[in-house]
């Protein structure tokens, strides 16, 4: 009886099903899926950036154009102002020629004390205008800070190849570091001169500043 009972119990145990393990995705398939997902997300991000960059560029362009228009309107209004009494007006600038003669440095100091500076020549038209004063006067340019590098007092560079040089180029070397006007066959020219020499001073006041 005991033997039969043991055999029956053993048979029952052998007929129970084995536990079922959950299915596993192959690692390669998971990697491929992640790569595809990354590509899709990256493409979407690039599209988003490109679309919004175009909008930002357009808005920036419109803003810059509006700023330019406002600046031009402001300059136009400022140019309509009258110069101080005794000063001559040309374009958007005012000019005054002082009768006293001084060195370049003292001449500039005088101009600055009147809220102006030594004249900066921006165009041939301006050169023609200031030539009417008919005197030798200082202009607002020097290469004293760096030999051979001529700059106007407003910071802009005066090229050594400019056709307005009396001799075609500066010819004073290290001894002549300041700019004055000159004439050759009644044409307005300029030349380098020793800064300690004395000349008249032509001051210039810019209305749009």
From TrEMBL:
SUPFAM superfamilies recorded: C-type lectin-like (SSF56436)
Ranges of Polar residues compositional bias? 1-18
Q: Where is this region: Disordered?
A: 1-21
Q: Does the keyword Transmembrane helix apply?
A: yes
One Pfam family, short name: Lectin_C
Q: Which residues form a coiled coil?
A: 53-80
> Where does the C-type lectin domain start and stop, copy by copy?
90-204
**What is the recorded membrane topology of this protein?**
Single-pass type II membrane protein
TM ranges are 27-50
UniProt KW keywords: Coiled coil, Membrane, Transmembrane, Transmembrane helix
One GO cellular component assignment for this chain's record is: plasma membrane
Cross-referenced InterPro entries: C-type_lectin-like, C-type_lectin-like/link_sf, C-type_lectin/matrix_domain, CTDL_fold
Question: What compartments host this protein?
Answer: Cell membrane
The question of whether Transmembrane is a record keyword is answered with yes
Please identify the protein, giving its name as recorded.
Answer: C-type lectin domain-containing protein
| Species in which this protein is naturally found | Gadus morhua (Atlantic cod)
